[in-house]
Write a structure and sequence with these properties.
This is Zinc-binding dehydrogenase. GO terms for molecular function: alcohol dehydrogenase (NADP+) activity; zinc ion binding. Belongs to the zinc-containing alcohol dehydrogenase family. Pfam families: ADH_N, ADH_zinc_N. This protein has about 350 residues and is α/β, with parallel strands linked by helices. The protein has eleven helices and 17 strands. The strands form four sheets. Strands 3, 4, 5, 8, 9, 16 and 17 form a seven-stranded mixed β-sheet that branches. α4 packs across α10. The structure holds NADP nicotinamide-adenine-dinucleotide phosphate (NAP) and zinc ion. NADP nicotinamide-adenine-dinucleotide phosphate binds next to α1, α4 and α5.
């Protein structure tokens, strides 16, 4: 079927309206009418070829929510009308150790929701800035939030799981001091989730103007990271720091704040490397510098259920598809509180 989408024909071209093709649902497929799609900084990195290997046309979008339109003959878990989501994964090998453990995000054969290898035309996956998507039932998530919150649920599918997963893996909870660096789409969810898990949360931002907002999101303290004196006061008190910054920066400034055995987890994925940290900042306190990528399907469902139970959604600004190029420029300036979400009904305009 042919559907409307928004994408780019080259790295230096703006996104524009285009027609794309979706496959007819197979026996295990779910076809989804996309209601909303969040705008992740990864979309911008990919569509502008800041990461290697972007294929064009590129239709980004991996924070997808909507309603089931149709299901294949062997699908029993979903029916038309169900509220569902699709995150960053639309396929994987389904037979490796990672897939067996529900960690499809670490499968070597993981297929991303856009720019991933597929037999569908045009040969790579096309994402959620589109009217419909067809995905194998294994990668479809169930949404338990009220339907009125659907737009604000969309960012949970990437920003939510990408911060939830390291917070869980490194045991954020009562008695733990957790830092969140960079208060953008990911970071604002990191604050909300770490707070809901019961941790003491410190937000690190380069923007003094985000201080009050970070406290309102659930941070117990806010530190402006450009203020050297304020940073020095934070020394050696963190169990965990989740770093979401989308640009290369001095990691030592944050590593020095970890307790013995503390860990800083990088989730931000800048186009060029960070300057190498000082090894002495790591060996002297047995500190860990780690990375984490989104989350597997079972943990993504767990995160959605946790958010529904704790009444957590993203803080969003709803836009039309034609506003996407401006939204990217504003995201680069940090001018978004805290996630743009496309109203996919605007694609037909
Ligand atoms: P975003 O909304 O643009 O937020 C990034 C935040 O980082 C900004 O709001 C800003 O916060 C801070 N920042 C940006 N440039 C900075 C600089 N030069 N120096 C210091 N701080 C800076 O982006 P996002 O959607 O949250 O994504 C963040 C990063 O995570 C991107 O690189 C994205 O590709 C990556 N990502 C990774 C995964 C994964 O699985 N690991 C998943 C999704 C996204 P302040 O104003 O508070 O300083
Ligand atoms: Zn993302």
């Amino acid at each position: 079927m042919s559907v409307k989408a928004y994408g780019a024909h080259a790295a230096d071209k703006p996104l524009e309206s285009m027609d794309i093709t979706r496959r007819t649902p197979g026996a295990h497929d779910v076809q989804i009418d996309i209601a909303y799609c969040g705008v992740c900084h990864s979309d911008l990195h990919q569509v502008r070829a800041e990461w290697a290997g972007t294929q064009y046309p590129c239709v980004p979008g991996h924070e997808i929510v909507g309603k089931v339109a149709a299901v294949g003959a062997h699908v029993s878990g979903f029916k038309p009308g169900d509220l569902v989501g699709i995150g960053c994964i639309v396929d994987s090998c389904k037979q490796c150790e990672d897939c067996d453990e529900g960690l499809e995000n670490y499968c070597d054969g993981m297929v991303g929701t856009y720019n991933g290898a597929t037999e569908d035309a045009p040969g790579w996956t096309l994402g959620g800035y589109s009217q419909e998507i067809v995905v194998h039932e294994r990668y479809v998530l169930r949404i338990g939030h009220p339907e009125q919150q659907l737009a604000a649920v969309a960012p949970l599918l990437c920003a939510g799981i990408t911060t939830y997963s390291p917070l869980r893996h490194w045991n954020a909870g009562p008695g733990k001091t957790v830092g969140v660096v960079g208060i953008g789409g990911l970071g604002h969810m990191g604050i909300k989730l770490a707070h809901a898990m019961g941790a003491h949360v410190v937000a690190f931002t380069t923007s003094e103007s985000k201080r009050e907002a970070a406290l309102a999101l659930g941070a117990d303290e806010v530190v402006v990271s450009r203020d050297a004196a304020a940073m020095a006061e934070q020394g050696k008190r963190f169990d965990l720091i989740v770093n979401t910054v989308a640009a290369p920066h001095d990691l030592d400034a944050f590593l020095a704040l970890l307790k013995r055995d503390g860990a800083m987890v990088l989730v931000g994925a800048p186009a060029t490397p960070h300057p190498s940290p000082n090894v002495f900042n790591m060996i002297t306190k047995r500190r860990t510098l780690a990375g984490s990528m989104i989350g597997g399907i079972p943990e993504t469902q767990e995160m959605l259920d946790f958010c529904a139970k704790h009444h957590l959604v993203a803080d969003i600004e709803l836009i039309t598809a034609s506003e996407i190029n401006d939204a990217y420029e504003r995201m680069l300036k940090g001018d978004v509180k805290y996630r743009f979400v496309i109203d996919n009904a605007s694609l037909s305009a």
